[in-house]
Design brief:
The complex is a heterodimer of chains A (93) and B (566). With 93 residues, chain A is α+β, with helices and mostly antiparallel strands. Chain A has one domain: ACT domain (Alpha-Beta Plaits). Helices cover 28% and strands 37% of the residues of chain A. In chain A, strand 2 and strand 3 form a beta hairpin. The longest helix of chain A has 11 residues. In chain B, helix 1 packs across helix 2, helix 11 runs antiparallel to helix 14 and helix 15 crosses helix 16. Chain B has a 6-stranded parallel sheet with strand order 2-1-3-4-6-5, sandwiched between helices. In chain B, strands 9-8-7-10-11-12 form a 6-stranded parallel sheet, sandwiched between helices. Chain B has a 6-stranded parallel sheet with strand order 14-13-15-16-18-17, with helices on both faces. Chain B has 23 helices and 20 strands. In chain B, strand 3, helix 4 and strand 4 form a beta-alpha-beta unit. The chains are: A alpha+beta (93), B alpha/beta (566). Chains A and B meet through helix 1 and helix 2 of A and strand 5 of B. Bound molecules: thiamine diphosphate (TPP) and magnesium ion. Magnesium ion binds next to helix 18 of chain B. The site of magnesium ion has 8 residues of chain B, from helix 18.
């Protein structure tokens, strides 16, 4: 699986709520990577047995496909996709 | 009760009577508990990969949960191929491994591997148990999860101290699943009724959803021309008038032609895998798509669908059948056209009339299909022989055809046949294997012998890794590389070393007698079938190529001749 070079690929902001189990974050990150995206930024917060994760990811594949794969994870309660972020590089170009 | 006993209680609660496993240090508390438990039959395979693949075969042949057990470290890593195999084909499986004691995790202890981390990509879900108190609840959840929605393997890694710890906690009963309701189908029905050349495209999801009967009712009532994927073989039954057979890389000309010409694809329980679709650009170029599946993540993944419907296939198929009863499809011209293709472009294995002629793969499989009883289960391996089975054996039910579709695991067939025989004690179970694949899990002959399973073994021996040789011949300028197996062991002697009788045939006039002999024998028996090294599977689509560009023997010969003249 290849991830596209970061400056050309569109960026997306995703937030995800999942239960705080062993390997929860690894599971999430692995799905992001295998489905063709690269993590550019990640913030994690835990409360009441849940993890709230904010991700900025980059990739050229349809992001809805990633969203449906993340939603399929048993411990993921919710995945929200914010409006696409316009990459700084492409704005200048 | 300790953690180990809780596992056996969970098996009992869920009517799990047969499990496949191999003991070792960290899982010993569970093996100790098994000594006192007469409710569970534990099948000792001879390699953990054999355990996982036998559990997979058990699940495929029975429609129930397959269970495999191993110790930590090498036991767990040996399971991995079998679990990946189940994951790729959505087979319900519960995997239980021992882990080093909690306090030693992360210290590079003896036989410690990070099983949770290493298997994330091949499980539907997985757990590392942190306390005995959480074990009973997680067992309930895992058993439910492995079998619900789109099924798959669920792995529970349990530290040894948790297996030994006493707990009085009892599992909460799982909340009852709500009755599946039917999603809105009117748009799909309207699109179907408006189509002039609709085609039914079904896959392994039908069997996984236990929806074979509803599917057949729908296929019969709609009289839709139909194609199947490798895992959908048997969906339509062997007497279906409208089934054009398997599509894709080694599919029938009729099936690929119909896909190419149809104006609507009704995809049910299939994921549009690349071996089936070929190059996506050229796949069903004139068709709109209705995609019905249990897993929404499959929608629009590889092909855009006009309509997607997620839900229980049983419920949806019944509703569709009802709708078409009220409004039959007016597609007689298209049906006739597909019938013509079926007549001229189906799979035909020419029977060799010459008694001393060498045996050919397709003719052998056709004879096997004519001779074996109706409820025979065929567990295939991977390679040319697997494709000949898919093309030339007439299956009446998808559960009769066990094949490693997604992962393509050489070595699947023998342990899968063992699992299938445990699930169906009175059925004929045959492992059709190749000389390469057989050697991948040949140690399981000892399991067949130990449990005196009447599994029949047929080795199609072309003295090479035939499928790789074929692609080297066709797509790599005939530059053979590392495919030669002409120093194979004496398979007959090998079987006999496991106290399994065996015989070898190499001529056309021996085929029928050979098959009849192994089928009539009351116990396991091996038939070693020598076939030509150069034989190929036809037709074939070049990997990455479009299904429109099928190569068949005559075209290749013509191209060869042209090349030689040039
Ligand atoms: C475990 C594994 N290793 C390698 C492959 C790649 N592979 C696919 S088919 C094949 C040849 C199989 O040979 P054999 O079992 O003799 O079957 P044949 O094609 O000759 O009928 C190989 C090596 C595989 N599918 N699985
Ligand atoms: Mg071979």
């Amino acid at each position: 699986m290849t991830t596209e070079s970061s400056c050309k690929a569109p960026s997306y902001n995703i937030t995800c709520r999942m239960s705080h189990e062993a390997a929860a974050l690894e599971r999430l990150c692995q799905v992001v990577r295998v489905r063709g995206f690269r993590i550019a930024k990640m913030a994690v917060d835990s409360a009441d047995g849940a993890l709230n994760i904010a991700l900025t990811i980059q990739g050229t594949r349809p992001v809805a496909m990633l969203q449906s794969q993340l939603e399929k994870l048993h411990t993921v309660a919710e995945v929200k996709l914010a409006a696409p972020v316009v990459a700084a590089a492409s704005r200048i170009a | 009760m300790n953690g180990a006993q809780h596992i056996l209680e969970a098996f009992h609660r869920h009517s799990i009577q047969t499990v496949f496993g191999y003991p070792g240090g960290c899982i010993m508390p569970l093996y100790d508990a098994l000594v006192d438990d007469v409710r569970v039959e534990h099948v000792l395979c001879r390699h953990e990969q054999g355990c996982a693949l036998a559990a997979d075969g058990y699940a495929r042949a029975s429609g129930k949960l397959g269970v495999c057990i191993a110790t930590s470290g090498p036991g767990a890593t040996n399971l991995i191929t079998g679990v990946a195999n189940a994951y790729q084909d959505s087979i319900p499986m519960l995997v239980i491994t021992g882990q080093v004691p909690s306090a030693l995790i992360g210290t590079d202890a003896f036989q410690e591997t990070d099983v949770l981390g290493m298997t994330l990509g091949i499980v539907k879900h997985s757990y590392l148990i942190e306390s005995a108190e959480e074990l009973p609840g997680i067992l309930e959840e895992a058993i439910e999860l492995a079998q619900s929605g789109r099924p798959g393997p669920v792995w529970i890694d349990i530290p040894k101290d948790v297996l030994l710890a006493e707990t009085t906690v009892l599992p909460e009963p799982m909340p009852a699943q709500p009755q599946a309701t039917c999603p809105e189908l009117s748009d799909a029905i309207a699109l179907l009724c408006a189509a002039r050349k609709p085609l039914l495209y079904s896959g392994g999801g039908i069997n996984l959803a236990h929806a074979e009967d509803s599917f057949r009712e729908f296929a019969k009532c709609s009289e839709l021309p139909a194609v199947v994927t490798l895992k959908g073989i048997g969906n339509a039954g062997k007497h279906s008038a409208h089934n054009l057979g398997m599509l894709g890389m080694h599919g029938s000309r009729a099936a690929n032609r119909a896909v190419d010409e149809c104006d609507l694809l009704l995809v049910i329980g299939a994921r549009l895998d690349d071996r089936a679709t070929g190059k996506l650009d050229g796949f069903a170029p004139n068709a709109r798509t209705i995609h019905i599946d249990a897993d929404a993540a499959e929608f629009n993944k590889l092909r855009k669908a006009e309509i997607t419907i997620r839900g229980d296939l049983n419920v949806i198929l019944k509703e569709l059948t009802q709708a078409l009863r009220d409004t039959p499809l007016a597609i007689n011209e298209w049906r006739k056209q597909c019938q013509n293709w079926r007549t001229t472009g189906g799979f035909q294995a020419a029977d060799n009339e010459e008694p001393l002629a060498p045996i050919t793969g397709p003719a052998f499989i056709s004879q096997l299909s004519r001779t074996a009883p109706d409820d025979t289960i065929i567990a295939c391996d991977v390679g040319q022989h697997q494709m000949w089975v898919a093309q030339h054996y007439q299956f009446d039910h998808p559960r009769h055809h066990l094949t490693s579709g997604g992962l393509g695991t050489m070595g699947f067939g023998l342990p899968a046949a063992i699992g299938a025989q445990f699930a169906n004690r009175n059925s004929t179970v045959i492992n059709v294997t190749g000389d390469g694949s057989f050697m991948m899990n040949a140690q399981e002959l000892a399991t067949i012998r130990r449990y005196n399973l009447p599994v029949k073994l047929i080795i199609m021996d072309n003295q090479c890794l035939g499928m790789v040789r074929q692609q080297q011949e066709l797509f790599y300028n005939n530059r053979e590389s590392q495919i030669n197996l002409d120093d194979n062991p004496d398979f007959v002697a090998m079987a006999r070393a496991f106290d399994i009788p065996a015989l070898k045939i190499d001529r056309t006039d021996q085929v029928r007698r050979g098959i009849e002999t192994i089928l009539a024998y009351d116990g396991p028996m091996l038939l070693h079938v020598a076939i030509a090294r150069e034989e190929n599977v036809w037709p074939i689509v070049k990997p990455g190529g479009s299904n429109k560009e099928m190569i068949d023997e005559t075209r290749r010969t013509a191209a060869d001749k042209k090349e030689k003249i040039a």
